Amino acid sequence: MAVERTLSILKPDALQQGVIGKILTKLEEAGLKPVAMKMMHLTRPEAEGFYAVHKERPFFKSLVEYMTSGPVIVQVLEGENAVAKNREVMGATDPAKAAEGTIRKLFAKSIEANSAHGSDSAENARNEIAWFFAQTDLVRYDWKKR
Ligand code: CMP
Q1: Is 120 close to ligand 1, i.e. is its CB under 6 Å away?
Q2: Which residues contact 135 (CB under 8 A, 6 or more apart)?
Q3: Cβ neighbours of residue 69 under 8 Å, at least 6 residues apart?
Q4: pLDDT 10s digit of each residue in the chain, 146 long?
Q5: Atom of ligand 1 nearest to the CA of 66
C-alpha cells in the first residue's frame, strides 16, 4: 500500500473539550502525519458546501448548525493506507457503536458531535482536500527517514 492522504477535521466538540493534543497523539501513533493544518471557524456556506452530499438527510440542518458552532481544525493526514487508518482510529460514526480506545469512543458526545471527520474513500479524500487546501499548502516528508 502506497503512502496516501486523507482529510481530517477535528470538530467543535473536540476543541471545546481541549483534547486536540490527545487526538493528534492517537493519529501520530497510528503512523499518520499532518502535512497541512489550519484552524477555522466554518461559515454556513462552507459547512453546507462541504457536507453537500448529506443535504437531503434529516440531520443536515442540525449538522451545519453544529459544525459552525465553534472553531475546528482542518488537516491533511499522510501515511500508509491513510484513509482507512484514519477511519479505524476515529471509530464508528456513532460513538455508542465505536470500538474501545477509538477517538469517538473516548471523546464524542453524540452521533452528530462526534469529534472528528475523515474522508471515506481515496477519491473523496482528493475532493475534500481540494475543498480546503491548495497543493502548495501541503508540506513534504521523507518517509524513508524515521
Ligand atoms: P462525519 O464523518 O463528519 O460525516 C457526516 C456527519 O454527519 C457525521 O460525521 C456526523 O457528524 C453527522 N451525522 C451522521 N449521521 C447522523 C445522524 N443520524 N444524526 C445526526 N448527525 C449525523
Answers
A1: no
A2: none
A3: 12
A4: 689 999 999 999 999 999 999 999 999 999 999 999 999 999 999 999 999 999 999 999 999 999 999 999 999 999 999 999 999 999 999 999 999 999 999 999 999 999 999 999 999 999 999 999 999 999 998 888 87
A5: 11
